[in-house]
Amino acid sequence: PRAYTVAAKMPEQIHGRVKKERTRVITKLYRQIAAMHNQRWIDWQGEVIIDEISDYSPDGIKTWNARNYAYKLVIIKDSNNEFSLGDKLSVRIKRATAFDLRAEVVGVVEKYANKISTINKIDATSISTSMSEKVVSDKLENELVIVN
Q1: Contacts of residue 30, Cβ cutoff 8 Å, sequence gap at least 6
Q2: CA distance 118 to 102
Q3: Domain coverage including residue 128
Q4: pLDDT score for 26
Q5: What's the domain count of the chain?
Q6: How far apart are CA 130 and CA 148, in angstroms?
Q7: Could you tell me the CATH number of the domain that includes residue 99?
Q8: pTM for the full model?
């Protein structure tokens, strides 16, 4: 235990070897349970959003990290496509580990770059509209005319 804690003052201390063994057993059990839980996701098909672009994997295939609706980490390896942060993909889970799900791409639902350009167009339109309304408003204010 840490010095100056209640646990440090307890008379019967557990030996370090016992603590290490207990930690090893609990960690192994956790990994088994997590792997069993993630196995339920195999063959699931649904949407994910790319939230990280990883480096190439050891086998030379580009890798992306994505999240599904349950915020599960979904790893996608695909040498045929190029994805960007924010892209929404349809995937099928093929394999599961204790820490992540491995998927293949079924299709592209929405490219984030397309969404950004659409948003930028909308923003530019609304800004120019707001500016022209302001100019008209300023000019009309002098004439005390209200335009709806």
Answers
A1: 98
A2: 31
A3: 111-148
A4: 98
A5: 3
A6: 14
A7: 2.40.50.140
A8: 0.67
